[in-house]
Amino acid sequence: MSSETSSPIKGSTATGGNKTSRPELVGKSMEEATKVILKDKPEAQIVVVSAGSPVTMDYRIDRLRLFVDTVAEIPMVG
What we know:
The chain is an alpha+beta fold. The chain contains one helix and two strands, in the order αββ. Helix content is about 15%, strand content about 15%.
């Protein structure tokens, strides 16, 4: 007997040929990553999240989270 899992394996293409993770985008800018993601999956809902922030555990096939951890500009008051 074989058992099938209902959730995809990280990095697999268990969602009908769509990637479930994008390790090749690590180190890319948000703009570059967004362009690549939308090229492959135009219906993707991209959510930018600070690295280490809590996120919901619900699985949504149309959502892709970009975890960022760098400061791109000088923080300013005002």
